[in-house]
Amino acid sequence: MKVVLAYSGGLDTSVILTWLKETYDADVITYTADVGQGEEVAEAVEKAYATGASEAVVEDLTLPFVRDAVFPALRANAVYEWYYLLGTSLARPIITQGMMETAATHGADAIAHGATGKGNDQVRFELSAYAIDPDIKVIAPWREWDLKGRADCVAYAKKRGIPVPVTPEKPYSMDANLLHISYEGGVLEDPWEGPPPGMFRMTTDPEDAPDEPESVIITFEAGTPVAVNGEHLEPVELLTKLNEIGGRHGVGRIDIVENRFVGMKSRGVYETPGGTLLHHAHRAVESITLDREVAHLRDELVPRYAEMVYNGFWFAPEREALQAFMDSIQVRVNGDARLKLYKGSATIEGRRSERHALYDRATVTFEEDDVYDQADAAGFIRLNALRLRRLAEERLGAGE
Fold this sequence. Notes:
Elements: E1 2-6, H1 11-24, E2 27-34, H2 40-50, E3 55-60, H3 62-75, H4 87-105, E4 110-112, H5 121-132, E5 137-139, H6 150-159, E6 173-176, E7 181-184, E8 214-221, E9 224-228, E10 231-232, H7 235-248, E11 253-259, E12 265-271, H8 273-289, H9 292-311, H10 317-328, E13 335-342, E14 345-352, H11 361-364, H12 376-397
Parallel strand pairs: 1-2, 1-4, 2-3, 4-5
Antiparallel strand pairs: 6-7, 7-12, 8-9, 8-13, 9-10, 11-12, 13-14
């Protein structure tokens, strides 16, 4: 049996590699997707071979991750439950797509992952996999084996001489990519307990951030960011630069209790510096370029879109249909937004669009103008008040 394993080199996937060989007598090919998680990618190959992988595949997916997942979600203003910018949710379908291509190339019988039976990632991996190949076999060890938790995994690893990467100094789970880092589990399972000092990796503590604010200008074309401070950048470079700028000022930290798709509430701590700047800047440019009713209709659909992505339906027809709508209204979203960053905050200072601004200063001015006849408002108000006045008459007549 040949299995492609989504592999990070961490405790869970290291144990799973050995378990697959023992349980299924499997030929295990590890698949490590680089979505911007850092040094662990280079280490994964060495760990995989040391743990018995027949082949270790590493693929740079940073460009498709940003271009084909992060930016489309940005154009849709996707935020789950008002706060979460979906960093992990967006990475999973891109990783799964790469893993499925590797499985097809190597003629694998199955794929495997290290997501637990309590989390969202198992759903995201498997829904994406089945959308690509409806006949693929999926092995999810956390739903099969008799190991009950991290302590059992550590014991299993030590017994078989597998290096154990979890240390007492970091008593929580961490998942990183180019858009964000998520933290959960361990000490964070108590929703009253604050994040431990020194936990955050992408952002400076706002209290230690520069004492002088910094302004940054982000340029959009058809709703997609293309430049920072006038410098045109490719997608990965652009997000990397904004991560550095936002992270320096402590922007993008959130601490939430979210509703998982599987039914439980979970506490998650996230840092998304560049993504936070993009979200605020995008909405600022939209505010002067989108028609009111189009914007309001889109905003009604944002929670549905975000929920689809969070729940793992990236390749589902309803998400693709909504994406087509979201992208179609972005044609006019061209312009710049200027943000001021200071001690963890990102404040909109200005927005402009030379081509598609619907904002008309001559109409809204408080000074004299020859564009708007204020007397017209009287009829507008009387027509809108007609039903309210009739209802008031009825209530007064009935003695209510």
